[in-house]
Each structure stands twice: as structure tokens, then as C-alpha cells.
What we know:
Blueprint: H1 3-43
Amino acid sequence: MDVVVLARLQLAVTTNLHFVFVALTLGLVPVVALVSLVLFTVVLGPCR
Length: 48
């Protein structure tokens, strides 16, 4: 393969992984917040 083709392939893979992982991270924020809320309110109970 040509060096230019490899560089373009590397850029494409890096860009797509960045796009997927940023969307995944932002999508998991509400799930983590909900699980934390349930943990601290239901499982651990009220503050003493």
C-alpha cells in the first residue's frame, strides 16, 4: 500500500473511533447518574 493510502486509512479509523466513543460516553452519563442516585438514596438509605 501507498503511504498516502495508509495515512488516510489511519485518519478514517481515528475519526470514526473518536466519534463513537464520544457519543458512547455522553450517552452513558444519564445511566451513571441514575444508578448513583438509586445507590445513594435507596440502597444506602438516608443520612443519619
